[in-house]
Design goal:
By secondary structure, the protein is mostly helical. The chain is built from twelve helices and five strands. Helices cover 49% and strands 8% of the residues. A three-stranded antiparallel beta sheet has the order 1-5-4, with no helix packed on it. A hairpin with a 2-residue loop joins strand 4 and strand 5.
């Protein structure tokens, strides 16, 4: 057991960090690759360490991992997955062994991993959409998103690129279940978050440097997990014990890291498992 008893929410700043830090450098790769939930599942299932990185695109193309997609598209996907998953080896190892069958779980994980490596999407889903939810009829559309992107980037992009980015952000959020799937104005909603996905992400955040605290951050806020609702989920979440006494929160990890959580709670097996 690994227990934290603190007067405030358990912070992400830990001495031993195995996942590094969330990405803070802005980029525009989401213009080319959105949430790609199904392609991510295929990548988890097919990619293996014994395939040399320099040969991976050829193998993926010839074995038609992603169906009839062109070599150029396969290379784009693999490059992006390198940022989203390969950069976090323990997480990728878990996802390869697990390859969750539940669609909502896959959506949750892909959404959080995109937030992790894309600060613009992280802010869009975790802050901007949350602010929009305070309206009488919570919604988002391309025009309001374009204005937000312009504000975030100080009008550095041409109008056509800004519009493309706004569209890409909405598309990714729709795939994550954050808004309705229709043209024009999208109604905001929250996705179903499975216990397995929530525990996976908490164990991931446990060893990550990120902005916020373990229980108050853009990742959980983006899917409606905050304050009392989150605490209610934590009270019955396998692999974690949580309690509150006034301002004192006690958070107990049942396992030392994400991989051991997966072995014990998901009953996954590894050759080198303890």
């Amino acid at each position: 057991m690994f227990t934290q008893s603190l007067p405030t929410i358990f912070s992400s700043t830990m001495d031993a960090v195995s996942h590094g830090a969330e990405v803070s450098q802005f980029h525009a790769r989401t213009l080319r690759t959105s949430l790609v939930v199904e392609e991510s599942r295929i990548y988890w299932a097919r990619s293996q360490d014994n395939i040399p990185r320099e040969n991976r695109a050829i193998v993926a193309f010839e074995e038609r991992w992603f169906g009839g997609k062109s070599m150029a598209r396969v290379q784009t996907l693999l490059t992006e997955f390198g940022h989203r998953f390969d950069a976090y080896p323990m997480a990728l190892e878990v996802l390869r062994q697990w390859c969750p069958s539940d669609l909502a779980t896959r959506q949750n994980i892909c959404h959080w991993h995109l937030q992790l490596i894309d600060p613009l999407y992280r802010d869009f889903a975790g802050t901007f959409l949350e602010q929009r939810r305070s309206q009488l009829h919570p919604s988002v559309d391309r025009d309001v998103t374009v204005r937000w992107v312009k504000q975030k980037l100080d009008d550095k992009w041409a109008a056509v690129t800004t519009i493309r980015m706004a569209t890409s952000l909405i598309t990714a959020a729709t795939s994550a279940g954050l808004c309705s799937d229709n043209q024009g104005t999208r109604t905001l909603k929250y996705p179903r978050v499975s216990d397995e996905a929530l525990a996976y992400w908490l164990y991931f955040l446990k060893d990550l440097k990120f902005e916020g605290t373990l229980l108050t951050n853009s990742y959980l806020a983006s899917v409606g997990l905050s304050e009392d609702f989150l605490e209610q989920r934590l009270l019955r979440l396998p692999g974690i014990s949580f309690s509150r006494m006034g301002d004192l929160l006690e958070f107990t990890w049942h396992h030392p890291n994400l991989k051991i959580w997966a072995i014990k709670e998901l009953e996954l097996t590894w050759e080198d498992a303890p």
